[in-house]
Amino acid sequence: MRLLVSTLLLAASCGRAAAPERLYVTLGVDALPAAQALTGAHVALDGTDHDVALIEIDAAQIDALADVMHEQFARCGGFFVHDSLADAEAALHAVAAPRRAAVDYTLDRAELVTRLLPQLDAERIRSTIAELSAMKNRYYQSQTGAAASTWLAERWRGLSTRSDVTVEQVEQGWAQKSVIMTIPGTTHPDEIVVIGGHLDSIALGGATSTAPGADDDASGIATVTEIARVFLASDVRPARTIQFMGYAAEEVGLRGSQAIAKDYGKRGLNVVGALQLDMTNYRGSEKDIWLMKDFTSAAQNAFLIQLIDTYVGATWGLDACGYGCSDHASWYRAGVPASMPFEARFRDHNKKIHSRNDTLEASDANAAHALKFARLGLAYALELAKP
Ligand code: BES
Ligand code: ZN
């Protein structure tokens, strides 16, 4: 059932001087009552068979909505924020975006992979998590959130002295900028492999809260950083372009990644695969790596399973978030093969996230769990970007 919810539709005719900025949010119908209670929205049914609803809200309500979704909704009500009604409606109707032709997932870089994987260092992952989680918060609209972006850009710049490797901070309309590091491809530079995680953290109270986000998602950013470090230290040149991404504003509706994915779509950039590392350092289930089946590519997930079995030496399982739980969903919506290898079964995830208690001590203090994801991510980079 499709629902169209609208607040203050009559605002314009009620003599308001300036209409507030409107944003459009698509979210699971299960999360609708909570969102409605907050925004006071009306509901209109039009009878099509979606379990996704669309609401129109005042931009000023976004942070409060994020709080409600995280707090009352126990992380089951993923939501997307859209700038326009047209974009929101497109998302509502996009049951499955058109998939691009699959790339060839052959494994033929065994020698390189087995030479580089042992260089990955859990201690470096641990110390990066410690540094990131020592910041008061990495909220997308706070000073410390902005500083976290600059800190990461500097850290990534320090990984290479090569002039063809670039690091940029992408202005997206918030204090915090997304960070993108590019290693240009040699023979197929127009085919892009993305490996990312989200830079921001959140806890009740927004910009003034204490939100260490050690697992969510300093762990992913630290894992991405270690993959990049070993890749760049080896000085191998990938055939395809590799982009490492630290997304801003994930916790408030996947906004940083969505802006990037949309921009890439507009510019006709060809992302052949996206790997999302969000929460890698809490071993909550009996197996090591859990591949989320929803909002991801089955073909690329099968490739990851091959990589795990061949190179990583970890156990794996399949599970689902049940909603677009992280930035892979932004790529998925843009038609890009995306995957989300996760630290546990969904139901066994680290329950300390989104609070002041999401610390390194409360996850894996040695980052041994995150190291498995670094092994997978580096194998992915090498076998997909093909040096
Ligand atoms: N890291 C979480 C996603 C997550 C949480 C995955 C628990 C698996 C288990 C992410 O940062 C997050 O909090 N996502 C939001 C949704 C997003 C659209 C704002 C969530 O899950 O509520
Ligand atoms: Zn989160």
What does this structure look like?
The protein is of the alpha/beta class and 387 residues long. It has two domains: 2-91, no CATH class; 110-385, Aminopeptidase (3-Layer(aba) Sandwich). The chain contains eleven helices and 14 strands. It has helices at residues 32-39, 62-71, 85-93, 110-116, 122-133, 143-157, 214-234, 255-266, 298-312, 328-333, 368-385; strands spanning 3-6, 22-28, 42-45, 52-58, 79-82, 166-170, 178-183, 188-198, 240-247, 270-276, 289-292, 316-319, 338-339, 341-342. A six-stranded mixed β-sheet has the order 6-7-9-8-10-13, sandwiched between helices. A hairpin with a 7-residue loop joins strand 6 and strand 7 (178-183). The longest helix is centred in the middle third of the chain and has 21 residues, at 214-234. Residues 216, 251, 353-354 line the site of zinc ion (ZN). Ligand BES binds at residues 69-70, 75, 78-79, 216-217, 250-251, 253-254, 278-279, 321, 324-326, 342, 346, 349.
Helix-strand layout with pairing:
Elements: E1 3-6, E2 22-28, H1 32-39, E3 42-45, E4 52-58, H2 62-71, E5 79-82, H3 85-93, H4 110-116, H5 122-133, H6 143-157, E6 166-170, E7 178-183, E8 188-198, H7 214-234, E9 240-247, H8 255-266, E10 270-276, E11 289-292, H9 298-312, E12 316-319, H10 328-333, E13 338-339, E14 341-342, H11 368-385
Parallel strand pairs: 1-4, 8-9, 8-10, 10-13, 11-12
Antiparallel strand pairs: 1-3, 2-4, 2-5, 6-7, 7-9, 11-14
Helix pairs in contact: 1-2, 4-11, 5-7, 7-11, 9-11
Zinc ion (ZN) binds next to loops.
Q: Short description, anyone?
A:
The protein has eleven helices and 14 strands. With 387 residues, it is an alpha/beta fold. It has two domains: 90 residues, no CATH class; 276 residues, Zn peptidases (Aminopeptidase), CATH 3.40.630.10.
